[in-house]
Amino acid sequence: MSKFDFQFQKNASNQSVTAGLAMFETQKKAGIQQGSQAGTVKTARKYIDDAMDLVVSLDYNAARAMLDEALSIYPEDIVLLRLSGDVYLQQDDKDNALLTYMTAMGVNPLDTQVLNSIGSLLGLMGNSHDAKGFFQAAHNTDPSDAYSGYNWAHNSMKDSDWSFFDRLPQILRLGDRCPLDVQPFTLLGLTDDPALHKVRVKARCRDLMKRIKENKRFSRTSVHGRKIRIGFFSDDFRDHATMLLMGRFFDLIDRERFEVIIYDYGSSGNSAVRLQVEESADIYHNVRDISDHEMAELARKDGVDIAIDMKTYTKGARLAAFAERVAPVQVAFLGYPGTSGLPTMDYFIGDEITVPPSLRQHFSEKILYMPNCYQVNDNTREHSPDMPTRAELGLPEDAFVFCSLNNPNKVTPAEFDVWTKLLHNVPDSVLWLFAPTITTQENLLREAKARGIGPERLVFAARVSMVEHVSRMGRADLFLDAFNCNAHTTASEAVWSGLPIVTKAGKQFAARVAASIVTAIGCPDLVTETKEEYYDLAYKLATDREALNEIKQRLKDNLWTTPLYDSEQYVRDFENLMEKAILRHEEGYKPKHLSLN
Asked: In whole numbers, what is the pLDDT of the chain averaged over residues?
């Protein structure tokens, strides 16, 4: 693995990882000239090169010792300090990483990379508010720096701080020069532009493919006469929204036709969900501590026919393994709502609503079309008998309750304008928002005040367990969806709770998910195409109790008779698509858009 491959892997697999490692190849020359003295003492440049070689080989302890020695000689070398902080971070020593970065900032308070590193670490530590401040300082220092610009925007969105929006067009363009500094998931929340998204991720993948050789040789026999081996790759085999959706998925797979192999790069802890996944698999590997290349070799040794990447650009992803190719057929599924841009990713699982033919051009993959909703759901999940009262949730008993329980980073001023207009025109109504921090609440109250809405019209929902989250939803009257990145898991939770969701179908996959969900449960009339239609439908349902009750009754009646929660049929359809994809490969044909029709 080259130094760049290591750096790319770390940046691609964690949107919050420090900027330091990604920049050393171009930055390290700048801060080490003072260490080029003659004599037997190594120069700072030599220490950096040697330490980076150890980092690339994953020998962090040796790198730590070497950097400590180097800093005893060159205590104010800012590049050594940044690398030292990065190594502390890889050793999961966040406190010393932060202390080292702060020392580097003391050497040069205007070093953009140091400011980015501190912001990234604070984000990892769950302090998005302070992280935002460091990214904003970095971006103000260097407005051409895409990494700080995108992270400033992302962390601002978590706070519902929209003060950066006047600079958003300039931030979006920064990716032209530095595509590796654009976090794809952040981009989805900032703009509904699938063409721009594809350009950005393809540029990332071009850099990756320059440094990774695609494997095209596999020692495997034809699937005719034997089980098809499917490998599922993720670090979300735990208490995570993805597993909440999947439920019994692995148990339902037909073991007469398929063999299930799990490649888990998450924690090896004994959570009930992880243990259930391990028990459901024919073969289970925890691959957290091996490299992407070693994981790819293991999958090839296992004879995987179809590899299912359930991460892509979400936290913990390991896209470099799929660039090398772990199986002859590779499929992106469920975890990331957009194209990978990776030329070795053959297919993407969608449906006719999330990826209509007119929008296929925005995918580098061919589409495997599920006949109903692309999203898997578990029909054995419980309806909690312990629904809290409105009073317990801080909601007024007699008001009409609009809600948006999406994460704050999905909400933009465009939706909020519509929601506050609804509050103006539906007098006895409140807006119930997921706002887990005081900062988020204060920002939303300020934005509401600027639109003429008093603080009594907003009610804030705290972070609770998944069971509590689903049970409380039934106390709202109408869910108002986000535009650029819809409710995904939250949308299926809403309809499971009997809560109608008004959504606007956008252009990118992430902006069309809720439309697919409500259509699959027999309520396509909840889908709108424009902001005006969205407002009109929400207003009608808020002021016409008969129309609202009809929708609610339909959701209740359709729960067991429509495809959305037919877990068994979903798995049969999934299996049949997988079989079509591998048979097409074995017949010597290139991937193409496939459906079961």
From this structure: 92
